[in-house]
Write a structure and sequence with these properties.
four-stranded parallel beta sheet; Ptyr_pPase_sf; 16% strand; 5 helices
């Protein structure tokens, strides 16, 4: 089974969304987790827009990429989903055969009223869904 880790800054939205979609689309073929460099609480708007898709991420806990590394976890792919993830010092995960970068806008940086932010995060969610679908097709 292919092991994949999605990484972003806070593990509060983008990496959680990517993890949820990959589990939904091809969870029987992939073991998938997500983590952040500076874990924070889940973004409530991310929870809301994923619920619109019938996916409940409200129970998910954020986790540190460094803690996963310290436990000796091994991954076939580490995929960063934000610009910060690409620039930050990412720990070296032994056994990685590929590092991929799929950047998306940061939902925590969105401005405007709630409905405006929801519209923007729906766009990000849909971009992530498309990217994960392409990833499944490429890795299948």
């Amino acid at each position: 089974m292919v092991k994949i880790l999605f990484v972003c800054t806070h593990n509060s939205a983008r990496s959680q969304i990517a993890e949820a979609y990959l589990k939904q689309m091809a969870g029987e073929h992939f073991q998938v987790e997500s983590a952040g460099f500076e874990p924070a609480d889940l973004n409530p708007l991310a929870i809301e827009v994923m619920a619109e898709e019938g996916i409940d991420i409200s129970h998910k806990k954020t986790q540190s990429v460094f803690n996963l590394y310290k436990t000796g976890k091994l991954y076939d792919y580490v995929i960063t989903v934000c610009e910060n993830g690409r620039e930050a010092e990412c720990p070296v995960f032994p056994g990685i055969s590929k590092r991929l970068h799929m950047p998306f806008d940061d939902p925590s940086a969105l401005s405007g009223g709630k409905e405006e932010r929801l519209a923007k995060i729906r766009r990000i969610r849909d971009q992530i869904k498309d990217a994960v679908n392409k990833l499944v097709l490429e890795l299948d």
